[in-house]
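Sequence only, no structure available. Ideas?
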Amino acid sequence: MMFDSKQRSEIIINLQQYFSDELEHELGQFDAEFLLDFLIKKLGPAFYNKGLEDAKAILERKVLDIGDELYEIEMPLD
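Reply:
I predicted one. Tokens follow.
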């Protein structure tokens, strides 16, 4: 999972803020970058796969809807 430099910087700032506010621990830039890389490596695939699963479910529903609509306009055979 790749982020552009602006997104990555914002995430790192958010991690540092979270550690400061919630854990009362100062997280340096270097440590925050390593933490982000670790989270991406360990959690990224699970989030990615869940996103694919959700997209697949939406696509399957849409295909069923299209099938229903096609059935509705089907011409009877006499």
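The chain has a mean pLDDT of 96.
Hope that gets you unstuck.
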